[in-house]
Each structure stands twice: as structure tokens, then as C-alpha cells.
Specification:
11 strands, single chain, Arc Repressor Mutant, subunit A, about 230 residues, Rossmann fold, globular, 8 helices, alpha/beta, 5-stranded parallel sheet
């Protein structure tokens, strides 16, 4: 994908901030569209899915998290990259945003340089994960193209945050990752989330995997790995 082919949807009800976002990403020569409401954004996405959504949480009317929830529940839009842009800076806000399925979380006021770097990083990481073949360890399989998870022949439901964790571990079978590494690689948090967040998602993932939960192993003193042995 070239820069000219990259379509970015800015969902922001403050025109000045929308213009600042465009200014921040101007060097990449991306194409921008704007929407001021969840309804307007959803209508645009249905007609022309963008490559990246920059989404304000505190929109007038419906919350930006409402749009994020609709995207993550839609099979065809499940993997659409979304970065939350928000003035909400509390740790619990960050945790809520990432648990809802955001690929990254940028607080206002933001550095134009930082936004550009993080936008490109999200696009690169999402792109790397979408074009791979189905992933499997033992009876556990994940297909990135259809966003489905199976244990043997049985499909299982996995929440958005746990899906991303599972996909990352399946891409690196047998490799041990610390909690800090998982926060950085899965949630792109870089120290902004408590490491106990990983333990919560591991617990939820094990519960979802049912009889395959033994594949997700705790390596005492180090972290976690996914292995059939």
C-alpha cells in the first residue's frame, strides 16, 4: 500500500482538532475524510472502509466507544485499525479503551510527531497480522482472515482483547514473553498499563479456551507462552 492509497477517517466533532490531526500526518500524503458523529462515521465506513480510524471518545451524542464496539462486532470490519484520541487520561480510561478493542490510545493534547509515529506503527502491525495464513498450536487454530478461533472442529468465542493476545502468542509458539513485552506488543502500551492487566486477559483467555487452556502456560518468574509441549 502506498501513502496515496491510505485512507484515514477522522471521527472528531471539533473542527480545529480534526485539522490538527491532518496537519500531524501531512508528510505521509494520506487521504483524509472526517465525520462528526458515530452515525456519520458508520455510514461512511459502510460505503468505503478506511485503512485507519482516528476516533474521538467524547463525541457529542453517542460515545466513540459505541462506534468501536460496532466495528469489533462486525465480521467484515473486525480488524479495522482504530486509534482513540481523547482527553481522558486516567489509567482506568486507558484500560477501558484498550479492552474495548482500540489498537492504540493517544491523549489530548498530543504531539503531532508522536501521533504520526503511532499511526504508522498501528498500520504496519495490523498489516503484518492480516496477511498471514491460519495459525495453529495443537488443536487450537486461529484464522486472521475470518477472525475465527477453533479448538478442534468446535468454534469458540473470544473477546477482542483476548483475541489479539491469542493471535500474538500463536505467531510465536513456544516463545516466552514477559508481561511488559506483551503490553508493548499486543496493546502497544509502553508502560502506560499495569502489568496485572496481562494476568486478567490470560485468565479470561484460558476460560474461553476451555479444554485447550493447558496450551497457555505460565513460566514462573518470566511470563507466558503458548505451547503444545
Amino acid at each position: 500500500m502506498t501513502s496515496a492509497e491510505t485512507l484515514v477517517l477522522i471521527v472528531e466533532d471539533e473542527p480545529a482538532i480534526a485539522e490538527l490531526v491532518k496537519f500531524s500526518l501531512r508528510e505521509d500524503h494520506w487521504t483524509f475524510r472526517t465525520a462528526a458523529t458515530v452515525g456519520e462515521a458508520w455510514e461512511f465506513i459502510q460505503q468505503q472502509p478506511p485503512h485507519l480510524v482516528l476516533l474521538d471518545w467524547m463525541l457529542r451524542g453517542e460515545s466513540g466507544l459505541r462506534l468501536l464496539s460496532r466495528l469489533r462486532a462486525d465480521r467484515g470490519l473486525h480488524e479495522l485499525p482504530v486509534i482513540l484520541l481523547t482527553g481522558r487520561t486516567l489509567d482506568e480510561d486507558l484500560a477501558m479503551g484498550m479492552d474495548s478493542g482500540a489498537d492504540d490510545y493517544v491523549t489530548k493534547p498530543f504531539s503531532p510527531r508522536e501521533l504520526a509515529i503511532r499511526a504508522k506503527a498501528v498500520l504496519r502491525r495490523r498489516g503484518d497480522s492480516q496477511h498471514g495464513r491460519p495459525l495453529q498450536v495443537g488443536p487450537l487454530a486461529l484464522d486472521p482472515r475470518s477472525c475465527t478461533v477453533r479448538v478442534g472442529s468446535e468454534p469458540i468465542e473470544v473477546r477482542q482483547a483476548e483475541y489479539r493476545l491469542l493471535k500474538f502468542l500463536l505467531c510465536h509458539p513456544g516463545q516466552v514473553f514477559s508481561r511488559a513485552q506483551l503490553l508493548e506488543q499486543v496493546w502497544y502500551a509502553n508502560g502506560t498499563l499495569d502489568e496485572r492487566t496481562v494476568d486478567v486477559h490470560v485468565l479470561r483467555l484460558r476460560k474461553a479456551l476451555r479444554e485447550a487452556k493447558s496450551l497457555l502456560k505460565t513460566v514462573r518468574g518470566f511470563g507466558y507462552k503458548l505451547s503444545a509441549t
